[in-house]
Design brief:
287 residues, alpha/beta, Rossmann fold, Hypothetical Protein Tm841, Chain: A,domain 3, six-stranded mixed sheet, four-stranded parallel sheet, 10 helices, 37% helix
């Protein structure tokens, strides 16, 4: 058995991580003022956020063409792979996994296994890295899926967005009515609901500083029952300075955990908006 690992561009893995682990990345398309780009291919993240400030219409994201995905799977089959584990962003924010489920049997000689990460960004990227490492070590598909499922259950995150306009306009916030009345006056705390995997707002805070402090307090409470090593991430939407400050503070609080900085690229940044920040964590795959 030879297993390939595929993910999409919202994993926001570095070129080194992709190459080192032999991960295949499918770009997610998005449209800005009538022009379509492929994430990670046709436009830089910095240029995207510059465009986002002056767009005439709200940007739109879409799924990769099915034919493009099938062609990739077929090409992997020609390279000797008989199994593909395809790890993608949460089914609650994209229909990509559902699409793959409907076409997974159309590639002769290749078993395609779609896997819903129930998340996105670097957290999903780490799932792909874990799968690739196991595949390269000769583990079976069943062993890899079991490990990914267990690792996925250790993921958590708190988002702080500058305002809710993008999430509301994009229809990605499940409990909009509870927050819309004070969109311009608050810094809402958001998370992926553990039961529904939908993005939900759950607290309203009056400033970014207070929101970050509250996220830290909530994380500390969650960690009381954790008995395994964690990997923390500070994720930002074009705000590297604030991300670096938060990383420094968190690293001082948790010296035994790696705290890395990642980013929200165009597809996810479309919905969260510029200056969004997140504290995210999962079991450390290196320990």
């Amino acid at each position: 058995m030879k297993i390939a690992v595929v993910t999409d561009s919202t994993a926001y893995l570095s070129a080194e991580q992709v190459k080192e682990n032999n991960i295949h990345v499918v770009p997610i398309p998005f449209t800005v003022d009538g022009q379509t780009y492929r994430e990670g291919v046709d436009i830089t993240t910095t240029d995207f956020y510059a465009k986002l400030r002056t767009v005439r219409e709200f940007p739109k994201t879409s799924q990769p063409p099915v034919g493009e995905l099938l062609s990739l799977y077929e090409e992997l089959g020609k390279q000797g792979y008989d199994t593909v584990i395809s790890i993608h962003l949460a089914g609650t924010i994209s229909g990509l996994v559902a699409t793959l489920e409907s076409v997974k049997d159309q590639v002769p000689g290749v078993r395609v296994i779609p896997f819903d990460s129930r998340i996105t960004v670097i957290l999903m990227g780490m799932l792909a890295v874990k799968a690739a490492r196991m595949a390269n070590a000769g583990k079976s598909a069943d062993e890899i899926i079991a490990a990914l499922t267990e690792l996925r259950d250790t993921i958590g995150e708190y988002f702080v967005v500058d305002d809710l306009q993008n999430l509301v306009r994009g229809g990605r916030l499940s409990n909009t009515a509870a927050f819309i009345g004070s969109v311009l006056k608050i810094k809402p705390l958001l998370t992926f609901d553990e039961q529904t995997d939908e993005i939900v707002g759950f607290e309203k805070v009056r400033s970014t500083k207070k929101a970050l402090k509250r996220a830290e307090a909530l994380f500390a409470e969650r960690m009381k029952d954790v008995d395994y090593p964690l990997h923390l991430f500070v994720i930002h939407a074009n705000d590297p300075e604030m991300a670096a400050k938060w990383q420094h503070r968190l690293q001082k609080q948790y010296p035994d955990y790696p705290v890395d900085i990642s980013y929200f690229g165009p597809v996810i940044g479309t919905h969260l908006g510029e200056k969004a920040l997140a504290l995210a964590w999962m079991r450390d795959i290196d320990k």
